[in-house]
């Protein structure tokens, strides 16, 4: 995993979620193969997100995976779809 600033992939999850455990394994494997940085954010971590925005946005859908800020899936992570998204050139936001 990496820091949020340099990560192309963000996995939004929560503790005790078996689908999140499955998603974590898929994200870790696909990102390792692609050489892409990823980070995990707990939607219930109110210290990191005191307004509860992540819980409100993703709480019913975890795990949620984004690549370069674009949602790629929720509940079940599709490894092939994630790999295709990572194969695309990272957009230049600067």
Protein described:
The model has no long low-confidence stretch (mean pLDDT 91). 29% of the residues are buried. This protein has 94 residues and is α+β, with helices and mostly antiparallel strands. The two termini are 24 Å apart. Strands 2-1-3-4 form a four-stranded mixed β-sheet. It is globular, with a radius of gyration of 13 Å. Helix content is 34%, strand content 20%. It contains three helices and four strands.
Q: Which range best describes the helical content: under 10%, 10-25%, 25-40%, 40-55%, 55-70% or over 70%? A: 25-40%
The H/E string reads EHEHEEH
Termini gap = 24 Å
| H/I helix tally | 3
Structural class: alpha+beta
Question: Using DSSP, what is the number of strands?
Answer: 4
Which stretches are low in confidence, meaning pLDDT under 50 for 5 or more residues running?
none
Beta-strand residue percentage: 15-25%
Quaternary state of this entry equals single chain
In which order are the strands of the major sheet placed? 2-1-3-4
Described by the principal axes of the CA atoms, the overall outline is globular
Q: Whole-number average pLDDT?
A: 91
**For the report, how would you describe the main beta sheet?**
4 strands, mixed
Radius of gyration from the CA trace? 13 Å
């Amino acid at each position: 995993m990496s820091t949020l600033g340099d990560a192309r992939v963000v996995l939004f999850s929560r503790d005790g979620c078996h689908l999140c455990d499955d998603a974590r394994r898929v994200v870790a494997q696909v990102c390792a193969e692609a050489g892409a940085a990823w980070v995990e954010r707990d939607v219930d971590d109110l210290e990191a997100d005191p307004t509860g925005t992540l819980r409100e946005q993703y709480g019913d859908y975890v795990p949620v995976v984004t690549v370069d800020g674009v949602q790629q899936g929720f509940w079940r992570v599709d490894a092939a779809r994630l790999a295709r998204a990572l194969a695309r050139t990272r957009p230049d936001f600067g």
